[in-house]
Design goal:
The chain is an alpha+beta fold. The chain has helices at residues 32-45, 56-71, 77-88, 95-103, 180-193, 221-236, 265-271, 275-283, 301-311, 319-322, and strands spanning 6-9, 14-16, 49-50, 107-111, 117-121, 133-143, 153-163, 166-173, 207-211, 216-220, 296-297, 330-331.
């Protein structure tokens, strides 16, 4: 295993000085199915659990199981139905509300059959390794037909990472040689057609990853939500030509501290999608990244903040110390 020089280390995270790719460039043909298979194997080798489920009712059943395990509590059928419909799959909740439930309101209140109230954690942010990480692929979602006689459209999502049963990371893959933007456009179509369909659990996705094996990028759900808002405004004003914040140009590469992009999917998976890194991403609200045009998000923001605090003497009450969960770092 490669050795890295540590430039910043705390109990919650470690920042390495640089990343040396462990895998050479793959020159031979690799289909999308092969890429997907190898990607899932890399995740399971890192401790993810693979689930062979493809339908929404299985996704919901697993969500119940994972939340019961996290909270050491067994729902009655009536309690689960009530909690699921009111707290998790409320038809009045959109992307912003569901994002808030992951990042800010991750402790939801269950109305027990006994009349008592119980706190139910969606994510354990204090002890991150109490959270379960699972991976599923080819999940099916049926887009309702606009006409009663229609059959609708069936979409199959490539790979989804579940945190305590909730889909929080979605990965769209294309075979090597295909333009990366095609994967981005596919996600863009899914958000229009089917992420909201059924129980709407895919609106909980916090991070989107697109890759053709050779190049890999990511972006957050908040920029996607901004894009949806801007699309609606543009439709109302056809003369509005403002660039959407979720356009392909605003997706980001994952880089090391030397600002070298980690492009290969396997290398990206070994770093960004390591269990410790991903759970800390969800814990520290780093999905609230905002990008500056022409720049990318630096992945070592926490480490840079630590070094800034060290250089400044770590003064209590300083803006950096008080706003560590809302740090914006741009690399040009």
């Amino acid at each position: 295993m490669s050795q890295y020089n540590i430039i910043a280390e705390q109990e919650e995270y470690t920042v390495v000085s640089e990343y040396a790719a462990e895998y050479g460039k793959i020159d031979q043909y690799q289909s999308e199915a092969m890429l997907e298979r190898d990607f899932i194997k890399t995740l399971t080798d890192q401790g993810y659990e693979y689930l062979p489920i493809h339908e929404e009712h299985d996704l919901v059943d697993n969500l119940r199981t994972q939340l019961q395990k996290l909270n050491s509590y067994t729902f009655t059928d009536a309690e689960w139905e009530r909690f699921f419909r009111e707290n998790l799959a409320n038809l009045n909740d959109g992307i912003e509300t569901k994002t808030a439930k992951i990042q800010e309101d991750h402790i939801q209140v269950l109305k027990c059959d006994s009349g008592e109230s119980k706190n139910i954690y969606l994510i354990d942010k204090r002890n991150i390794h109490n959270n379960s990480l699972q991976v599923i692929n080819q999940h099916e979602s049926l887009t309702p037909s606009p006409s009663p006689e229609g059959e609708g459209r069936l979409n199959r999502y490539d790979v989804t990472i579940l945190v305590n049963g909730l889909p929080l990371v979605h990965v769209e893959l294309k075979r090597r040689g295909v333009q990366l933007k095609e994967a981005f456009n596919q996600i863009d179509r899914y958000q229009r057609e089917s992420f909201w369909a059924g129980c709407g659990l895919y609106e909980y996705v916090q991070i989107f990853i697109i890759s053709n094996g050779t190049n890999t990028k990511y972006y957050s759900n908040t920029t996607r939500a901004n894009h949806l808002k801007e699309q609606h405004q543009a439709q109302a004003k056809l003369t509005n030509r403002k660039k959407a914040s979720n356009s392909f140009e605003f997706s980001s590469f994952w880089t090391d501290s030397n600002n070298r992009a980690i492009l290969d999917l396997t290398d990206f998976t070994k770093t960004f999608l390591s269990k410790h890194t991903l759970l800390n991403v969800e814990r520290h609200e780093t999905c609230r990244f905002q990008c500056h045009a022409g720049g990318g998000i630096h992945p070592t923001g926490k480490g840079l903040l630590q070094r800034v605090q060290t250089a400044a003497g770590g003064m209590a009450g300083s803006p950096a110390a008080e706003d560590s969960n809302h740090l914006f770092v741009w690399s040009q």
